[in-house]
Design a protein that fits this description.
Blueprint lengths: L4 E7 L7 H11 L5 E5 L20 H10 L4 E6 L8 H11 L11 E7 L7 H13 L10 E3 L15 H22 L3
Parallel strand pairs: 1-2, 1-3, 3-4, 4-5
Length: 189
């Protein structure tokens, strides 16, 4: 039996009823067995400050985060759009993981971004802003299919389940493509 690829899921929304988290849970449940997922929490990360990034001063939350991301094979981001970009909490997590210089936890991880928003354009601005940062950090980002998920409030039934076969089919298309992307970037096992 082959070992599944380990994937970190980062959700850029801290809201209790976050649509991004709901989509992340739904999509990960549809994933092939070649992937396993670990939700890595980012809400407790202190803002990045280089003065704290020295031996004996590194905040415990930064160390926990870096240790969680470092060993994974890929990173799957779910982000809302704030002012045509990513939320500050997600940008801060990216900064924490990229430092100190030369010790980035991001390099060579198979990446993908899913933007989820209540508006019609599905967080396209955030999706592209996140891609730009990750490409700079040497994260090969999946190009297709692009996942801009709009009208998020209509995606789930009152039961909490994904509403509609077309939505499930799209989620499966995205997660299957990501599984293939991870195998391409990381290599076959």
């Amino acid at each position: 039996m082959t070992t599944p690829y380990r994937i970190a899921i980062l959700v850029g929304s801290l809201r209790k009823a976050s649509y991004n988290r709901r989509v992340a849970v739904a999509m990960s449940a549809l994933a092939p067995s070649s992937l396993t997922f670990e939700f890595v929490e980012i809400g407790d990360l202190p803002l990045y400050n280089e003065d704290l990034d020295t031996d004996g001063a590194v905040p415990a939350a930064w160390s926990r985060f870096r240790d969680a991301v470092r060993p994974v094979d890929g990173v799957l981001f779910f982000t809302p759009e704030y002012n045509r970009s990513v939320p500050g909490v997600l940008k801060n997590a990216i900064d924490v993981g990229s430092r100190p210089y030369g010790k980035s936890v991001w390099s060579k991880k198979a990446g993908a971004v899913v933007s989820v928003a209540t508006g019609g354009i599905g967080g396209m601005g955030a999706n592209h802003a996140l891609r730009q940062s990750m490409v700079f950090l040497d994260v090969p980002m999946m190009q297709q299919p692009e996942a801009y998920i709009g009208h998020a409030a209509k995606l789930f039934a009152d039961s909490g389940d994904v509403a509609g076969d077309d939505t499930k089919k799209f989620f499966r298309t995205v997660i299957d493509a990501y599984a293939a992307w991870v195998a391409t970037i990381v290599g076959a096992r």
